[in-house]
UniProtKB/TrEMBL annotation:
Coiled-coil stretches: none
Protein's UniProt name: Glycerate kinase
PANTHER family in UniProt: GLYCERATE KINASE (PTHR21599)
Protein family: Belongs to the glycerate kinase type-1 family.
Keyword Electron transport: no
Domain of life: Bacteria
Source organism of this protein record: Streptomyces chiangmaiensis
Enzyme Commission numbers on file: 2.7.1.31
């Protein structure tokens, strides 16, 4: 790579590549993406200075990204979405914790082939938050996404001390469907430590809790909800918010309409009730992971994810990385499994060029099965085009 001095003379500068990519879902973790890209680059440019900073946007893989950046992984036994016990992890560094709700309440925690749109609960996510408080966290980054649940965070609130009761004074059944029976909400028993912690809701979606753009309508079908289930869940969550309004005041209604309330089956709403502040997930994670100083050290940035498409432009990790890099005047290249964006759209997003695996191997099934070796070959092409 070359730059010119004040007299117009070309000067050689040290090349340092920052690999800040998200996972290739179903094929490679973000850590593995960074490893494979590094291997391919160094095959063409031996000894190349490469810094790896796996990133995530708050969804699944967020804890792994934090651990790769130097956080300590902590494992704890919590309730899975159907109540079965699972081992989930969160990450800690100093008094900051990164909690990923999918670790406890994600689709991957359901038994194979089982979907439970009406009964899946976020109780285990509340247990993870409590474990972070027990670890001494004063700031908790709560990454939400990839959930199996549509319970508005009711299970999470219950795990943290809330009592959600039916007309007989008994706890309502778990899951979004059970909220139709909610008669009274008692939040007086919430863990008092929540009042002194900075809880950050990190999400890549800004949907409200209910309505045409709410959690049940937009994301319920992905979790197995039929049209009747979607209607029932939407009504149950609206009722839930109304009952909380009677207990919590008008803020409960404001939170239900707020950006991020519908994230991860409405757990965003529960987090807002707990006092969380909503921030786009990738912005939060770049701050937490130390992206700014790593970016300053880099001469080229490589980002990416499994599919670069329209969704990428709406708060996904590559878009966040590219925006920050462009603001710093750094060139950005993207790697991906599948590319569904034209060059001009990539350019507007701050990405100079994208390299899909299908450019090397047209067979999509092979790209998924052999993503690692193919990504190394893609990285070799990047090195020849931009570094050699």
């Amino acid at each position: 790579m070359q730059v010119a001095d004040a007299a117009g003379n070309d000067l050689r500068v040290a090349q340092r590549v920052l690999v800040a990519a998200d996972k290739f879902k179903g094929s490679l973790t973000a850590v593995q993406v960074a490893e494979r890209v590094t291997t391919g680059l160094r095959r063409v440019v031996p000894g190349l200075d490469v810094e790896s900073l796996p990133v995530a946007d708050g969804g699944d893989g967020t804890v792994d990204a934090a651990v790769a950046a130097g956080f300590e992984r902590r494992a704890v036994r919590v309730a899975g979405p159907l109540g079965h016990e699972v081992t989930a992890a969160f990450a800690v560094r100093g008094d900051t914790a990164v909690v990923e709700m999918a670790e406890a309440s994600g689709l991957q925690r359901l038994p194979a082939g089982v979907l439970a749109p009406l009964t899946a609960s976020t109780y285990g996510s509340g247990e993870l938050l409590r474990a972070a408080l027990d670890a001494g966290a004063r700031t908790i980054v709560f990454g939400v996404g990839g959930s199996a649940t549509t319970d508005g965070g009711a299970g999470m609130l219950s795990a943290l001390g809330a009592r959600l009761l039916d007309a007989e004074g008994e706890p309502v059944p778990p899951g979004g469907g059970g909220l139709a029976e909610l008669a009274r909400a008692d939040l007086s028993g919430l863990d008092p430590r929540l009042s002194s912690v900075d809880l950050v809701l990190a999400s890549d979606v800004d949907n409200p809790l209910t309505g045409p753009k709410g959690a049940p309508a937009v994301y319920g079908p992905q979790k197995g909800a039929s049209p009747d289930d979607v209607a029932g869940l939407d009504a149950a969550l609206a009722h839930y918010a109304k009952v909380l309004e009677e207990t919590f005041g008008t803020r409960a209604a404001e939170y239900a309409a707020s950006p991020g309330a519908g994230a991860a089956g409405g757990i965003g709403y529960g987090a807002l009730v707990l006092g969380a502040r909503f921030r786009p997930g990738i912005e939060v994670m770049l701050d937490v992971l130390g992206f700014a100083p790593a970016l300053e050290r880099a001469s080229l940035v490589i980002t990416g994810e499994g599919s670069l498409d329209r969704q990428t432009l709406h708060g996904k990790a590559p878009a966040g990385v590219a925006a920050a890099a462009r603001a710093a005047g750094k060139e950005v290249i993207a790697v991906c499994g599948r590319l569904a964006l034209p060059p001009e759209t990539l350019g507007r997003a701050g990405i100079r060029r994208a390299y899909p695996l299908t450019e090397v191997e047209p067979d999509v099934a092979k790209c998924i099965a052999d993503a690692g070796p193919i990504l190394e070959r893609v990285a070799e092409n990047i090195a020849r085009d931009f570094l050699a």
